[in-house]
Hints:
The chain folds into two domains: 28-35 and 148-217, Barwin-like endoglucanases, CATH 2.40.40; 37-146, no CATH class. Helix content is 24%, strand content 38%. The protein has helices at residues 4-28, 45-52, 104-110, 154-160, 199-204; strands at 31-37, 40-44, 60-63, 70-79, 84-95, 99-101, 116-117, 129-131, 136-138, 143-146, 149-152, 167-171, 179-187, 194-198, 212-217. The strands form two sheets. Strands 2, 3, 4, 5, 6, 7, 8, 9 and 10 form a nine-stranded mixed β-sheet that branches. It has a six-stranded mixed barrel with strand order 1-14-11-13-12-15. The radius of gyration is 22 Å and the shape is globular.
Amino acid sequence: MVDGYTIVLINLLYLVNLYIQGGIQIMNNKKLPVAMSNRHLHLSENDIAVLFGEGHQLTNFKDLSQPGQFASNEKVDLIGPKGTIKGVRVLGPARNQTQIEISLTDSFILGVKPPVRDSGDLASSPGVKIVGPKGEVELTEGVIIASRHIHMHTDDAATFQVADKDRVQIKTSGERGVIFDNVLVRVHPTYALEMHVDTDEGNAAGLKNGDMVELIRQ
């Protein structure tokens, strides 16, 4: 015979389970905008000086969605073992180390084999020649295919119930809807909520800038 205490405990566990399921459903209904990231590069101060002249400062062409980040008026050419990509835009502000972010399709044009990496993880990545109006830089490393990732403000992270460096799944919609696995979450008080994919990934899923996607699982 089941006593009253056991019945209460069973009912409590049932309610807790419903609460958890409800919480998951709330998280599943949370959506965020996506942006497709075209090929670009970030330059160190030293490389800016070589490519554009001593004392040159990057000039703002357009502010980006992430506070303090901008697309500059400055462009360069990338030269790899097999080919050249002209007019690649530099993003600002300057960074400690030059980093080039391209798609897999771009890598075939240049003739390099960049790894899929989180931003800043450049060890053992290939290099290319960067040609600017005033000079050239021969990189020994720094070319990557950027991992798909999400920028989140700390408030957004609390809403989505995730933490910095978590990996999540993202579901897109439409005729070519897909589920992106292994999506890095990056949380910081200065970030604005947005998922970034490169042009290869975005085009394959039929995405365009500003489309809403859904976080479905941690």
